[in-house]
Amino acid sequence: MERGHKDMPMSHDADAPPGASRIAIVIVTYNSADVLEGCLGSIVDGARGVELTNVVVADNASKDESIKIAETTVGLPVSTVQVGRNAGYAAAVNAGVASLDLAGLDAVFVINPDCRLRPGTLDVLAASLRQPGRGIAVPRLVNPDGSLQPSLRRMPTVWRAVAEAVIGGSLAGRIGTLGELVTDPEQYEMAGVATWATGAAMLISVSAIREIGNWDESFLLYSEETEYALRAADHGWTLWYEPTAVVEHIGGDSGTNPTLASLLIVNKVRLFRQRRSRPAAAAYYAAVVLGESARALAGRQTSKASVAALVRPSRRITSLEPGRPGTE
């Protein structure tokens, strides 16, 4: 693993009042040159009111200009950590956090490179974490057009999997607490505790990081944030949603890329199996297969790939690097 840095100031705290939260940022990149500059450009305003000590770009062996963009950024305390291979989101997060001196920090903000912070976002999230028992704080995510991007989730259960299989996740999420994905816009107007949330942007207290430990790198992509949030809850830490902190998230292509879609579904089932009894896991698996099969019969390519990966372990992704076993 390689590390690099420029001769830059150790903190960016011109606007930080005395006693401001000390925050570091970890940005995970992989061929992110087209979005990274915009992310970095939003940090100065996004970090108003906090003492920003580090901005670490943890790179999963990008082939584009991602590292160059990071290393030529001015006005921010940017450093780079090169993972050396496309090891996945969790591995890059772990590498980025490992490069930090946690003793001098209050929290670490983990973020995707396709995110843009609105002014004062980190200060609002940091204030949320000052309440006892809160270990993770997440913002309101919006699409580039400003519309809401549903990001909150309820606890995965067999009955929620059945409901989503029968009527779809979007509709199930609007009917009380029937679905795992919270899709009712009114729910996003209120701050409160959530079971887990999209991992594109989350502030994690150093106290929680020390107790929870590393992110689970075996998930590669998808469900790693679920596993981390549920493990945090196991240790007594809550995840707090704060709608007045806003982050624009361009979003990935798991909804259109069959390979990534299958990884998302397989990891979802695998995580449930890790945490629940064998009978419950079998029922959950059956419900997910049922739902994806119905959509596959309707012609959805992502669901066809998901069904193949669910019923044929040899079709599952075990590496994100092209040319290695488990990739397409």
From TrEMBL:
Signal peptide: none annotated. The keyword GTP-binding does not apply. Pfam families: Glycos_transf_2. Belongs to the glycosyltransferase 2 family. It comes from the Bacteria. GO terms for molecular function: glycosyltransferase activity. Pathway: Cell wall biogenesis; cell wall polysaccharide biosynthesis. Keywords: Glycosyltransferase, Transferase. This is Glycosyl transferase family 2. It comes from Planotetraspora phitsanulokensis. Residues 25-152 form the Glycosyltransferase 2-like domain. SUPFAM superfamilies: Nucleotide-diphospho-sugar transferases. The keyword Chaperone does not apply. InterPro entries: Glyco_trans_2-like (IPR001173), Nucleotide-diphossugar_trans (IPR029044).
